[in-house]
Design goal:
There is one protein chain. By secondary structure, the chain is an alpha+beta fold. It contains 4 helices and 14 strands. It has helices spanning 18-32, 66-71, 114-119, 161-166, and strands spanning 2-6, 12-16, 37-43, 50-54, 57-61, 74-78, 86-90, 96-101, 104-109, 122-126, 133-137, 143-148, 151-156, 169-173. The strands form 6 sheets. The protein has a 4-stranded antiparallel beta sheet, with helices on one face. It is globular, with a radius of gyration of 17 Å. The model is unreliable at 1-25 (pLDDT under 50).
Length: 176
């Protein structure tokens, strides 16, 4: 445990676990400070599965080959609708981004429309499971990327433990 004395004159002390510090540092470096580049994201509750696209749809799946590593690696860009947020560009299909359409995550070519820009923009939030990160839809506030039956959707936060686990992802170094 580390103790940080903030404002010792008034007796405020914050205690943080070392694991939390490392995890939050990683999140801060990758997301909150807006560092862009290539990253992969593992599922919080299925750590052997990664966000990926397959046949133009979003999934969390184990990655076992070169195609899987490519499909599970995204170039984080400034959000197409809001530069303070993020858009996920496919590294093996440049110009294609993860977007939601009918609440399902899909990989689609950027058509330049305002709707596409909004659907492909996700704002980073502290992981709703207490670690990692969660991605809130830009144009559907309080809807987060989450997996259901290993498919990626955006769903409204329902407060359940399952939702918190399904909507939390851990940033990783790029798999490809």
């Amino acid at each position: 445990m580390k103790l940080f004395k903030l404002f010792p004159a008034v007796g405020i002390t914050i205690t943080l676990a070392a694991y939390s510090i490392v995890s939050n540092l990683q999140i801060t470096q990758v997301l909150a400070q807006g560092i862009r580049g290539n990253y992969s994201f593992s599922s919080y509750n299925f750590p052997d599965r990664y966000i990926r696209h397959r046949n133009y749809l979003g999934y969390i799946e184990p990655v076992n080959d070169e195609l899987g590593r490519k499909d599970a690696t995204f170039r984080l860009r400034n959000g197409l609708a809001n530069s303070k947020c993020t858009s996920f560009e496919s590294i093996n299909f440049p110009g294609h981004f993860l977007r939601h359409q009918d609440f399902r995550l899909k990989l689609a070519r950027n058509d330049g429309s305002r709707l596409f820009q909004q659907d492909a923009t996700f704002c980073q939030r502290a992981g709703v499971a207490g670690t990692g990160t969660s991605f809130e839809s830009y144009n559907f506030p309080a809807h987060y990327i989450r997996h259901k039956n290993f498919e990626l959707w955006i769903d409204p936060a329902d407060g359940s433990d399952l939702f918190r686990k399904d909507a939390t992802f851990i940033p990783q170094s790029a798999l490809y």
